[in-house]
């Protein structure tokens, strides 16, 4: 029992560190996430944080994994049971917009933040972000193709261009909301997504 309790405590500590890392990264970028800053933020020793992750890069990689999994849990999981194609695609857009407007991080959508931080770099963190986003693009592409096959979208629909449009609209929510104080970003983004897909906006 003691061993099980100890393992559970270690897991909870790891989650606390990763959550603190994600919150800090959302405000100041992933490069701001260091062993020392997290130790101070959580009232832990540096050795306690290092013991969890071994290196700053490992910490950053697991922070990216946390953010991608959080995105998946809040955007994809609630809609994955819906019929493939347009029904699931529209529900995905609505869930995506809700997430981007209120992602649970003080600095806004962290997936967007880390993408901008690392898009022009090389290395493991860049690759991990690219992999996560590529999987999401594939999900969207498949549902667009399914919607075309079902006759719900025009035969000439350019799926890669549509995916790009959806990503651009979702990525614009955080700066519009936090930088400019726009308080209707959800509505605007969702209308834009429907326009990209060529379907009537939901009322």
Core attributes:
203 residues, mainly alpha, 0% strand
Outline the structure in words.
72% of the residues lie in helices and 0% in strands. The mean pLDDT is 89. By secondary structure, the chain is mostly helical.
Question: What is the compact description of this entry?
Answer:
By secondary structure, this protein is mainly α. It has helices at residues 2-28, 35-42, 46-53, 56-76, 86-101, 110-118, 124-149, 159-171, 173-178, 185-197.
Mean pLDDT: 89
Rg on CA atoms, Å: 19 Å
Largest sheet: none
* Total count of strands: 0
**Distance N terminus to C terminus?**
55 Å
Query: How do the helices and strands follow one another from N- to C-terminus?
Result: HHHHHHHHHH
Count of DSSP-assigned helices: 10
Spell out the blueprint of helices and strands.
Blueprint lengths: L1 H27 L6 H8 L3 H8 L2 H21 L9 H16 L8 H9 L5 H26 L9 H13 L1 H6 L6 H13 L6
